[in-house]
């Protein structure tokens, strides 16, 4: 094994997917996993590549540094992150990230190959759901895992097989162990497995240590010793290289700080909108009170007018009654006058 490993390291071909990708070869279905997200990158106006990513908080994803480079080898923000555990086909234009932070020491990663300190932290515009918290491995935890050959789990969106042409769908996982062999690439390690191998598109996949009480992100998968699309079998094992996460808590903090600042700005804007709405409500209430007062005054005037009208109607009724009485009296007098004038001799004045 010791004689084979230097050859393995020297021949390590570490490439991010530049073709449609799917899932770990010989892996187990990981549909719906909260720990891995599908990623698409716009390398040129007409060319998209794909990778995997590790969701470490509702707003933060970690992936391989070489996954976020455009065709010129420059960091791009035209990166799109889908919902954790969903199909790579479901990634939309609205899933574009908010920002990207790459390790300042990342180098030797031109042409989509793995380089030293091959990590990038993405901040999302909209949060994702996390039911289980993910911890970042400490230096001592990494050392313990390496010394004991601790069990590790990779979850990714790599191709199904070395010659697979199947359509991209959901992620798969494979189990392996922390290899005691140290790669020549800075701050990296090997995951070795006898049951499955990583493939193109698995770049950025989370390397997890899972116990009964916690899930720990140990590193980010960056590549493998590929035959065509997937890792070669070497002495009965498949090997994948991953960048250790323990030394990059500062970038995670920076990304979290960026997210907090962004949320803080959004909160302040929301407060401003609330204050504006309160002022508008106050003005509306003042207008309502004024209208109510006017309505009350109008109602008072209406009541007074109605009372006057009632009085006038009563007076009119009384006058009508008096007029009728007068008419009757006049009729009586007219009848008497007619009777008197009919008598003989006729009274003077008839």
Observed structural traits:
350 residues, alpha+beta, 2 domains, six-stranded antiparallel β-barrel, 3 helices, 32% helix, disordered N terminus
Account of the 3D structure:
The chain is of the alpha+beta class and 350 residues long. The chain folds into 2 domains: 4-244, Beta Barrel (Thrombin, subunit H); 249-323. The chain has 3 helices and 15 strands. The chain has helices at 4-11, 139-148, 249-341; strands spanning 28-29, 36-44, 47-57, 60-63, 79-81, 99-102, 120-123, 134-136, 151-156, 172-178, 188-193, 206-210, 215-224, 233-234, 237-244. Strands 9-10-11-15-13-12 form a 6-stranded antiparallel β-barrel. It has a 6-stranded antiparallel β-sheet with strand order 5-2-3-4-7-6, covered by helices on one side. A hairpin with a 2-residue loop joins strand 2 (36-44) and strand 3. The longest helix is centred in the C-terminal third of the chain and has 93 residues, at 249-341. Mean pLDDT is 82; it is low at 1-23.
**% residues in beta strands:** 15-25%
Instruction: Name the helix and strand elements from N-terminus to C-terminus, one letter apiece.
Output: HEEEEEEEEHEEEEEEEH
- Continuous helix count: 3
Question: What are the low-pLDDT stretches, counting only 5+ consecutive residues below 50?
Answer: 1-23
Mean pLDDT: 82
* CATH top-level class of the largest domain: Mainly Beta
**Which fold does the CATH topology of the largest domain refer to?**
Thrombin, subunit H
Number of strands: 15
Shape: rod-shaped
């Amino acid at each position: 094994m010791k004689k084979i490993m230097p050859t393995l390291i020297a021949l390590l071909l570490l490439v991010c997917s530049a073709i449609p990708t799917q899932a770990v070869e010989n892996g187990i279905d990981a549909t719906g996993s909260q720990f891995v997200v599908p990623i698409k990158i716009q390398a040129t106006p007409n060319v998209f590549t794909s990778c995997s990513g590790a969701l470490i908080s509702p707003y933060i994803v970690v992936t391989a540094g070489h996954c976020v480079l455009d065709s010129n080898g420059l960091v791009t923000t035209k990166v799109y992150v889908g919902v954790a555990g969903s199909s790579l086909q479901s990634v939309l234009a609205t899933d574009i990230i908010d920002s990207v932070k790459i390790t300042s020491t990342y180098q030797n990663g031109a042409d989509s190959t793995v380089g030293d300190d091959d990590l990038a932290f993405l901040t999302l515009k909209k949060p994702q759901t996390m039911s289980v918290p993910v911890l970042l491995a400490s230096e001592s935890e990494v050392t313990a895992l390496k010394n004991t050959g601790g069990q590790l789990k990779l979850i990714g969106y790599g191709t199904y097989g070395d010659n697979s042409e199947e359509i991209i769908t959901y992620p798969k996982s494979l189990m392996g162990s922390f290899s005691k062999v140290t790669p020549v690439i800075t701050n990296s390690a090997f995951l070795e497995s006898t049951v499955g191998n990583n493939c193109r598109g698995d770049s950025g996949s989370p390397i997890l240590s899972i116990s009964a009480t916690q899930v720990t992100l140990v590193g980010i998968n960056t590549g493998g010793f590929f035959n065509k699309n997937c890792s070669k079998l070497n002495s009965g094992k498949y090997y994948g290289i991953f960048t250790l996460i323990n030394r990059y808590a500062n970038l995670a903090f920076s990304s979290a700080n960026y997210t907090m600042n962004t949320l803080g700005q959004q909160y302040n804007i929301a407060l401003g909108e609330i204050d504006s709405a309160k002022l508008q409500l106050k003005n509306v209430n003042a207008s309502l009170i004024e209208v109510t007062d006017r309505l009350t005054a109008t109602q008072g005037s209406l009541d007074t007018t109605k009372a006057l009208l009632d009085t006038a109607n009563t007076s009119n009724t009384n006058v009508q009654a008096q007029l009728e009485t007068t008419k009757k009296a006049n009729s009586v007098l007219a009848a008497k006058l007619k009777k008197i004038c009919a008598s003989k001799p006729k009274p003077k004045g008839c």
